[in-house]
From TrEMBL:
Pfam families named in the record: PS_Dcarbxylase
Domain of life: Bacteria
Transmembrane segments: 12-42
Source organism of this protein record: Jonquetella anthropi DSM 22815
Top-level taxonomy: Bacteria, Thermotogati, Synergistota, Synergistia, Synergistales
Molecular function terms, GO-annotated: phosphatidylserine decarboxylase activity
Name of the protein: Phosphatidylserine decarboxylase-related protein
GO biological process: phospholipid biosynthetic process
InterPro entries for this protein: PS_Dcarbxylase, PSD-A
Record key words, sorted: Cell membrane, Decarboxylase, Lipid biosynthesis, Lipid metabolism, Lyase, Membrane, Phospholipid biosynthesis, Phospholipid metabolism, Pyruvate, Transmembrane, Transmembrane helix, Zymogen
Length: 205
């Protein structure tokens, strides 16, 4: 499956490959590999989200680089889990839990390496907050050193299921998720995550 953001660039390179095939066949040695690379970069594989209403799943493919207690005006005191996406990871981002969107905030910023802690405070980022059965949850897409742009098609009032797609960061970077303090973590720093599948925390009964 292809992410919607990849349709236009893939069509452009498919067209260039077709033109090269009929007009200058040697050009395929350039256009065909690039076309395949574009299709691979924008891949969006299906994921099987656990059927557990108390679980929070990873919002991004990647590696956990940060777990800290913090606070934000939208959600208050929270546990923040930072997941760094490298250039080889799937770049589509997903909801950590079912909920209804209440808060959106885009902040222009700098281009620090996304794995650095200061990236969460200074880089270009997009906050998405939503009300869940367990309280308010906040996710933040953070652009890194080479990320081209943040894509998010969410509006206030939209409702999502756990693991549902909501956007992507072109050329990777980082996603922070702010969870309620009563969430029991299932991951530690260094853990690998699969968006929509890996359980990162759970609210106990």
């Amino acid at each position: 499956m292809l992410a919607p953001q990849g349709r236009r660039p893939l069509l452009v390179w498919l067209a260039l490959s077709a033109v090269g095939l009929f007009c200058f066949p040697p050009a395929l040695f350039l256009t065909l590999p690039v076309t395949l690379l574009v299709g691979w970069f924008y891949r969006d594989p299906e994921r099987k989200t656990p059927d557990n209403p108390r679980a929070f799943v990873a919002p991004a493919d990647g590696r956990v680089t940060e777990i800290v207690r913090t606070s934000h005006p939208y959600c208050g005191p929270a546990v923040k889990i930072g997941i760094f996406m490298n250039a080889l990871n799937v770049h589509v981002n997903r909801m950590a839990c079912a909920g209804t969107v209440e808060y959106l905030d885009y902040i222009p910023g700098r281009k620090w390496v996304a794995s650095a802690p200061k990236a969460s405070l200074e880089n270009e980022r997009f906050f998405l907050g939503y009300q869940t059965a367990h309280g308010r949850v906040l996710q933040c897409q953070i652009a890194g050193l080479v990320a081209r742009r943040i894509a998010c098609s969410v509006k206030k009032g939209d409702s999502f299921a756990a693991g549902q797609r909501y956007g992507m960061i072109l050329l990777g970077s980082k996603v922070d998720v702010y969870l309620p303090l009563n969430a029991v973590l299932s991951v530690s720093v260094g853990a690998r995550t699969v968006a929509g599948e890996t359980v990162i925390a759970e609210v106990k009964k």
